[in-house]
Amino acid sequence: MDQELYEQWLDFTKRHLPKETKSVFELACGSGALSVRLAQEGYKVTGLDISEEMLTWASKKARQAGYQLDFTAGDMRELSGLGKFDAVTCYSDSLCYLENLDELQATFDGVFEILNEGGTFIFDVHSTYQVDEVFPNYSYHENAEDFAFLWDSFGGEVPHSIVHELSFFIQGSDGKFTRKDEVHEERTYPIDDYLARLATAGFKEAMVCADFTDEAPSEESARWFFVCKK
Question: What residue stretches are annotated with the Methyltransferase domain (predicted)?
């Protein structure tokens, strides 16, 4: 992923976390790129991801940067008992991988439970415009001497959903290429659906902005950001 995106997520987080914030729980932390950046800013960081492989990379990345961070394997739909935190983040449209509104509600409920009173929950999702108008029939191909990457997207079966088909071709030391295929299915919802589910979870405030700015979304915004208060 473009490293500049992590800098943008970091900047957005710093702008919207209160100065007294000390502990941050990062949902879907992946390889730990943002976790390490948050630690470098002085936050006590805990990361959760469903992939053991990604957490191995995250721990290695943290150690190389000189940090011993807490990384936990787990499901964002089941957060009960994981402790209490001043802030929770969930970026890179990770919530869009949940299958339906019930799973989204379970995640919001869990986040509310692990947040300290007055805590902040920040997340981003694809906009309906991005999923309905931009992604369908999107195709990106990259070729290099030792690597090739194919990305094709198609509309999904349910409203505001998309299927990404990814293929990686990586050259080994013997000169032969190995192919790896991935299918990513994502789904988003209108802003009002997210706000309703946040309210049901108990959040008392929710600000919505777009595309790493603090401006309200437009009809053609690609990514929505939510800043919520317990």
Answer: 24-119
